[in-house]
Amino acid sequence: MDFRPQSAFLIATLVVVNIIWWMVMIGAIALGATHLDRCPVQPHIPIYLIVMGATSILSLIFTYSTKMDGVIHVLSTACMTVLHIFSFAWLIAGTSWVYAVYPPDYSEGDLYCHKMTYLFAFVITTLMWVAVSLIFICGCCVALLTCCTTAVARHHLIPNRNSFYGATSSSQQPAAGDV
């Protein structure tokens, strides 16, 4: 592992992003719980917000506890992995619930949805898909760069048939009796 000191800007950015994400997820829980029965057109949307907020907060807590050693580290990493897999599946389910009723009727009646609840779920779901897409694209770029670097390094490490290990020059030929 690389234990280089991090820049102050990077640490400050991570702290600010974490604080904002905590506030958004607490807001998701509060908004979903407050308007639990105020979206008859798709009653799963407030539940989606509550569960998404709770799993995100739990995931952040496990992220902070991965600095420990031993069994606690293994357990928190396993729990965090399960939470991430569940959160991705929950995002897919929430996407089908939120986007299926776009745009809902905001005026109270039989088939309406509370405007703030729906718009919050719509924006958060869209932002999470943007983040997942960016992570996927960046991961593919890193994988491609790693493959290209490995291929170039492999080309330099494998000798051709006219060279031998320990040679100082590629033009040096072994003597006839040295085989």
Low-confidence stretches: none
Count of helical segments?
A: 4
SSE-based structural type = mainly alpha
The end-to-end distance, rounded to whole angstroms, is 44 Å
The average pLDDT score comes to 84
Strand content: under 5%
Count of domains: 1
Radius of gyration: 26 Å
Global morphology: elongated
Topology:
Elements: H1 8-34, H2 44-64, H3 71-100, H4 115-157
Keywords: Membrane, Transmembrane, Transmembrane helix
Transmembrane segments: 7-33, 45-64, 71-99, 119-152
Detailed description of the structure:
This protein has 179 residues and is mainly alpha-helical. The protein has one domain (8-155). The protein contains 4 helices and no strands. Helix 1 (8-34) runs antiparallel to helix 2 and helix 3 (71-100) packs across helix 4. The radius of gyration is 26 Å and the shape is elongated.
Summarize the structure.
With 179 residues, the protein is mainly α. Helix content is 68%, strand content 0%. The model has no long low-confidence stretch (mean pLDDT 84).
Record keyword descriptors for this entry.
179 residues; mainly alpha
